[in-house]
Write a structure and sequence with these properties.
Layout lengths: L1 H16 L8 H39 L44
Length: 108
C-alpha cells in the first residue's frame, strides 16, 4: 500500500514538472539582463585583480633572481574595468552621413 502511494505521489510530481511556465515579464527580463551584466563585470574585475597579482609576483621574481632571470616577455598592461554601471539602453552608433556635393559642382 505504501509503495503504491509513493509511486502515485512520484508520478504526480513528475507530471507537474512538465507543466508549461508562463513567459517572463519585461521586468524579469530586465532583471536577468542586469544580473548577466553584473556577472560579466565581476569576471572582468577578477581578471584585473589576477593580472595585478601576477605582475607583482613577476616583479618579485625579477628582483630576487637577477642572475638566473633573463629578460621578461612583454605583456600587455592590466586594464582596470572601473566601477559597475548598468545602462539598459546603450547608445547606438550613428550611421555615417552621406558625403556632401562640392559647392562649385553643377549638374549639366
Amino acid at each position: 500500500m505504501n509503495k503504491a502511494f509513493a509511486w502515485f505521489l512520484a508520478s504526480l510530481v513528475a507530471t507537474s514538472a512538465w507543466a508549461k511556465l508562463p513567459p517572463p515579464s519585461d521586468e524579469a527580463k530586465a532583471k536577468a539582463a542586469e544580473a548577466a551584466a553584473k556577472t560579466a563585470h565581476s569576471g572582468k574585475v577578477d581578471s584585473y585583480l589576477l593580472c595585478k597579482s601576477q605582475d607583482k609576483v613577476a616583479a618579485h621574481v625579477q628582483r630576487t633572481n637577477k642572475a638566473k632571470a633573463g629578460k621578461p616577455a612583454a605583456m600587455p598592461a592590466c586594464a582596470d574595468p572601473g566601477k559597475f554601471e548598468y545602462n539598459p539602453n546603450p547608445p547606438t552608433a550613428a550611421a555615417p552621413a552621406a558625403p556632401a556635393a562640392p559647392a562649385g559642382a553643377k549638374k549639366s
